[in-house]
UniProtKB/TrEMBL annotation:
<keyword id="KW-0540">Nuclease</keyword>
<dbReference type="Pfam" id="PF00622">
    <property type="entry name" value="SPRY"/>
</dbReference>
<dbReference type="InterPro" id="IPR043136">
    <property type="entry name" value="B30.2/SPRY_sf"/>
</dbReference>
<keyword id="KW-0547">Nucleotide-binding</keyword>
<dbReference type="GO" id="GO:0003723">
    <property type="term" value="F:RNA binding"/>
</dbReference>
<dbReference type="InterPro" id="IPR027417">
    <property type="entry name" value="P-loop_NTPase"/>
</dbReference>
<dbReference type="GO" id="GO:0004518">
    <property type="term" value="F:nuclease activity"/>
</dbReference>
<comment type="function">
    <text>RNA helicase.</text>
</comment>
<comment type="similarity">
    <text>Belongs to the DEAD box helicase family.</text>
</comment>
<keyword id="KW-0347">Helicase</keyword>
<dbReference type="GO" id="GO:0016787">
    <property type="term" value="F:hydrolase activity"/>
</dbReference>
<dbReference type="InterPro" id="IPR011545">
    <property type="entry name" value="DEAD/DEAH_box_helicase_dom"/>
</dbReference>
<keyword id="KW-0378">Hydrolase</keyword>
<dbReference type="Pfam" id="PF00270">
    <property type="entry name" value="DEAD"/>
</dbReference>
<dbReference type="GO" id="GO:0003724">
    <property type="term" value="F:RNA helicase activity"/>
</dbReference>
<keyword id="KW-0067">ATP-binding</keyword>
<keyword id="KW-0694">RNA-binding</keyword>
Length: 448
């Protein structure tokens, strides 16, 4: 099933000779990167079915970071700073900005702050250039152009020019009305004229006219396509595919900029903004409906990882009834996998002590129990805060375990939150249809 020998050894020592049915089905699916919905009886081995592949992927990620690879990341992005294609740079971005492997989809799920990024190349010297940015998920966006000297929060200094979703242009912390507001599914055209030294934007093909004159002292600066997001997502087209709204007036796609006017980003792989993960941001979060189940899952994880070392996976149990200061201290020293109950988890997340921006696995165990206990809104809130694409370009995986997959609430949640999940149902639907109602009537029998 692709499980590491060290995990196999731990499993053998637990007297597990063969995988159970649910493990044989689920482990390859999770290792392959898919979302999984599973239903199986208690004692079927479902905890191992999701814990084993998660532990393996977390370990492999930590090992790559320790060896300085982001090589699965670096080799994949090896051209990010010297690529034939224009893309957003994974090395020049804020700590909660996630960029997909192609460098064209950007997402920041921090609802409290702005996070930005710039392209892996810039134009300089002259010419007229254009790219498009489409809003793919609601949130706050600001898109435009910046120089090397600009901060990643576009438009708050005098070296970057932004146009925000509220219908405001921004430069030097000055926000003025321009054009009109935009939102999900709108496409913003970004124009840079280095011959006339002007910047303008369009919305869905409607040209809003000149927004800024570029100051003369910026004439020889490098200009990057740039974006800053707050709990939002945008997709970019630098000209490698046809534009939705082709520019007029001699503007060229950035991808067609003359080589003599194109320079590479000064920020290279070794300078990755978020090369070192935050200590309080785990890669996996497992939510259990009760303290007892959380403890059981936590204990299983400790047994599974017994033979994994260098690096060591750091796990934390977050439940009520334990001094919260002890849990915060562990978070500050570093944690990779968190197992917890909803109340204490949300306390730590809402106060910023537990961060979600590096989460790759979101697991709901006994999901029907969580929903029946009224935690549906909390699950929605957490899922909304977790980036759907991690900082190294991996898609968030969601795993849901339930006593039955035929619960209406579980089905609706899966449709809403999960990405084409694989259903593994080893329990089956209840034999009695939901349309059949059971009625008990008591009779008092008298004997003559």
């Amino acid at each position: 099933m692709g499980v590491m020998p060290e995990l196999g050894q731990a499993v053998e020592e637990m007297d597990w000779s063969l995988p159970t049915d649910v493990q044989a089905e689920a482990i390859p699916m999770i290792l392959g990167g898919g979302d999984v919905l599973m239903a199986a009886e208690t004692g079927s081995g479902k905890t191992g079915a999701f814990c084993l592949p998660i532990i393996q992927i977390v370990y492999e990620t930590l090992r790559d970071q320790q060896e300085g690879k982001g090589s699965k990341l670096s080799s994949h992005h090896s051209g990010s700073t010297h690529s034939a294609h224009w893309k957003m740079s994974p090395y020049d971005r804020g700590d909660a900005m996630a960029i997909d492997p192609e460098g064209l989809l950007c997402q920041a799920r921090d609802a409290q702050g702005w996070h930005g990024t710039r392209t892996n190349k810039a134009v300089v010297g002259g010419g007229k250039y254009y790219y498009e940015a489409t809003v793919t998920d609601e949130g706050l966006c600001r898109v435009g152009w910046s120089t090397d000297k600009a901060t990643l929060e576009l438009g708050i200094d005098k070296f970057g020019f932004g146009f925000g979703g509220t219908g405001k242009k921004s430069w030097g912390k000055q926000f003025d009305s321009y054009g009109e507001a935009y939102g999900i599914n709108d496409t913003i055209g970004c124009y840079l004229d280095l011959d006339k030294m002007e910047i303008k934007w369009s919305k869905n093909g409607v040209d809003f006219g000149k927004a800024y004159d570029i100051q003369a002292h910026l004439k020889n600066e490098r200009f990057y396509a740039a974006v800053t997001l707050k709990n939002a997502e945008m997709k970019f087209n630098f000209g490698n595919t046809p534009f939705k709204y082709p520019p007029q007036g001699g503007f060229k796609a950035l991808s067609n900029a003359p080589s003599e006017n194109v320079v590479q980003s000064r920020i290279v792989a070794s300078g990755a903004v978020n090369a070192k993960p935050a200590s309080n941001a785990p890669q996996a979060i497992i939510i259990e409906p009760s303290r007892e189940l959380a403890e059981q899952t936590f204990n299983q994880i400790q047994k599974f990882k017994l033979h994994l070392s260098n690096p060591t996976i750091r796990e934390l149990l977050i439940i009520g009834g334990v001094n919260i200061r002890d849990q915060v201290e562990v978070l500050e020293t570093g944690v990779d996998v968190v197992v917890g109950t909803p109340g204490r988890l949300e306390d730590l997340i809402s106060t910023g002590r537990l961060a979600l921006h590096q989460c790759r696995f979101f697991v709901l165990d006994e999901a029907d129990g969580l929903l029946s206990a009224g935690y549906g809104d909390m699950i929605n809130r957490l899922h909304q805060q977790i980036p759907k694409v991690t900082n190294d370009g991996k898609r968030l995986q969601m795993i849901v375990c339930s006593a039955t997959l035929h619960s209406f609430d579980v089905k609706k949640m899966a449709e809403r939150l999960m990405y084409f999940p694989t259903w593994i149902d080893l329990k089956g639907q209840d034999a009695v249809p939901e349309t059949v109602h059971h009625v008990v009537r008591l009779f008092k029998i008298r004997f003559l």
